[in-house]
């Protein structure tokens, strides 16, 4: 994923498409619109409105005041997702990657202000 984001950052979507395989480029054209559909765009607009009108901030403040029950549950579930397990396995097979100690703590956040 970082590679894709880095390519887009470096030269835009055209450069990313040029840099990946033709199969991946075809998938972007043929399947991408099914992933980012009009329904997804509408939902993203609704979410932006919640950010702009303060709804999201109020929800986050209340979540923190309550001791972060939903946040901690989301975090627990996310660490057990298949993409995390497969990603760790794949990275372990890449000797050129330097271990960076990026394992998420099992409990609360790292102490950094990440709100």
Description:
The chain has 115 residues and is an all-alpha fold. The protein has a domain at 2-66. Helix content is 70%, strand content 0%. The longest helix is centred in the N-terminal third of the chain and has 18 residues, at 2-19.
**Oligomer kind:** single chain
Give me the strand/helix succession. HHHHHH
Tally the helices: what do you get? 6
Question: How would you sum up the major sheet?
Answer: none
SSE blueprint and pairings:
Layout: H1 2-19, H2 22-35, H3 38-52, H4 55-65, H5 69-79, H6 82-92
Short characterization:
The protein is mainly α and 115 residues long.
Which terms summarize this structure?
115 residues, mainly alpha
């Amino acid at each position: 994923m970082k590679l894709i984001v880095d390519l887009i950052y470096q030269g835009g979507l055209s450069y990313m498409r040029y840099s990946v395989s033709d199969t991946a480029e075809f998938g972007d054209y043929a399947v991408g619109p099914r992933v980012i559909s009009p329904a997804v765009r509408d939902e993203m607009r609704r979410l932006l409105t919640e950010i702009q009108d303060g709804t999201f901030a109020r929800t986050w403040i209340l979540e923190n005041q309550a001791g972060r029950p939903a946040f901690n549950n989301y975090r627990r579930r996310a660490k057990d997702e298949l993409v995390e397990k497969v990603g760790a396995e794949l990275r372990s097979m890449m000797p050129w990657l330097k271990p960076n100690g990026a394992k998420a703590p099992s409990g609360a956040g790292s102490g950094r202000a990440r709100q």
